[in-house]
Amino acid sequence: MQKSGLYRLAMASAMIVVLLNTWLAVRELHSLFDAQGWRAHTLEVITHTKALELSVSRAEAAVRGYVLMGSPGFEQRYRESSQNVDSEVAEIKHLTADNPSQQKRLDFLHSRLLAKFAALDAGIAIRNGAGGPLEERLLEPTMSDSPDGRPTVGYVINQIEVEEEGLLADRNRETRNAETAVWVSFIGASLLDVLLLLAAFEFLIRITRDRYALAERTAEIAALNTELQSLNADLEGRVEQRTRELAVSNQELEAFSYSVSHDLRAPLRTIDGFSLALMEDFSDKLNEEGRDYIARVRNGVQRMGTLIDALLQLSRVTRTDVQRERIDLSQLATLVFNEIQAGSPERDVLFLSQPGLLVQADPRLLRIALENLIGNAYKFTSRTEGAKIDFGTVPGRDQHEGQTVYFIRDNGAGFDMQYVDRLFTAFQRLHGDRDFKGSGIGLATVSRIIRRHHGNIWAESDLGHGATFYFTLTPER
What is the Cα gyration radius of the chain? Predict the structure, then answer.
């Protein structure tokens, strides 16, 4: 027994050593991948700088060709090369975002490119004004590598490449060191694995002796499996019970909604009716302060009714099933705006809607969302001269790349962006009730509708200069 215990301890120690060596090998492999990744990153930067040089050269060659021959094709190639230059500079700036010195060089390069292409544009303008071919020597000032006598574009690009070449040399060295460390680690791990396999072979013989004991344990496992099946059946029964309890809870919630919708409205109607009767029948017997109190009571009752309506709508939006169908969102937005405009015909608000926006969504829920968003835009432009509301789409960026992003933009009061996190929370209002009426629940309702369509919603604003609300609608999975 003592010998067996020592043998097991030795086996465990060997396995620990192998696992430790394997972990070291994996870590070195990760280091190698990182080094290769940075090396590839540097090569990508150098590739884009070469492409940038080529685009600048093509642009200059195209201008020369246009000056000499006047062919529109040369001017088109010049425009395309100019766009390629902009995209290459943006890509290099993105790739070197972690390198402050390269960022400074890129800023300087941008200014030199502006000077360079301004001179090339001037050359094209001179050629267009002349109406015929010109001698190239007359345009040499505009075709010069340095129109203003400062460092050339090629010189600045070369400085960027010099630093990247230095980084490439360092990262090549790091890659070689990492490769060496990986080989050493894997060779050591392989040798230890061989020794462990030899020891395992002997240990396998010992396992054979325990086979009969294993058969006895199998019977125990079978008994435990039977017990587990019984527990699973009990768990399924509990899940069914919880499901029934949840259904009952939903029914109670429906009953509560009905109570809010009917039972709580009855006292409000009573208060509103009697306060109106007081105002109409006894206003001559009340002083100004008494009439003001009654007016405040009626305003409070009406606001309470509005809050109840908003809460019920929020509750229904949360519980209702999403029934998707193909709808024209442009037509729906225009219809909602026209209905809102009909309620305030004295206002002159310009509404622009991008046509032909088709989407698979629940038309009833989307109508509620647009009523709140366009209604807010209409409300917050009430004090703006030349009020304007736009509805359309923009291409998705960052985490929304590849998606259609819808927006509703106004030029109204706007809001302070430091409070944007409170915007879609119920009862969180960024404007006082004296400035703009509201329940504080509309945007929370919109947020839930968008989430039920697996989308996202966010907003941007400049206080006093309007606001823009963006949202996405993900197709049903």
Answer: 37
CA pair distance 276, 298, nearest whole angstrom:
8
Beta strands 325-328; 358-361: pairing state: antiparallel
Do 192 and 31 touch, CB atoms closer than 8 A?
no
What is the rounded CA–CA span in Å between residue 241 and residue 248?
A: 11
Distance separating alpha carbons of residues 15 and 393, to the nearest angstrom: 60
Pick out the chain residues at pLDDT < 50: 432
CA 192 to CA 162: how far, in whole Å?
Answer: 45
| Residue 320 neighbours by CB under 8 Å, 6+ apart | 365
Determine the pLDDT at residue 141. Answer: 57
| Cβ contact 369:446 at 8 Å | yes
Q: Of the candidates 18, 24, 25, 43, which has an alpha carbon nearest to the alpha carbon of residue 95?
A: 43
Q: Identify the residue whose tokens are 């230059």.
A: 85
How far apart are the C-alpha atoms of 26 and 34, rounded to whole Å?
12
Region for 397 from its dihedrals, namely left if φ exceeds 0, alpha if ψ lies in -120 to 50, beta otherwise: beta
- Judge contact between 86 and 40, C-beta under 8 A: no
List C-alpha distances in Å: 404 to 1, 370, 371, 475.
72, 17, 20, 11
- State the number of CA atoms in the 13 A half-sphere of 185 facing the CB: 20
Q: Report the amino acid identity of residue 19.
A: L
Helix, strand, coil fractions of the chain, as percent rounded to 5: 75, 10, 20
Q: How many helices (H) and strands (E) does the chain have?
A: 11, 7
- 449 within 8 A of 317, measured Cβ to Cβ: yes
Residue count of the chain = 477
User: How far is 16 from 423, CA to CA, in rounded Å?
Assistant: 55
Predicted local confidence at residue 426, as pLDDT? 62
Whether the Cβ atoms of residue 32 and residue 178 lie closer than 8 Å to each other: yes
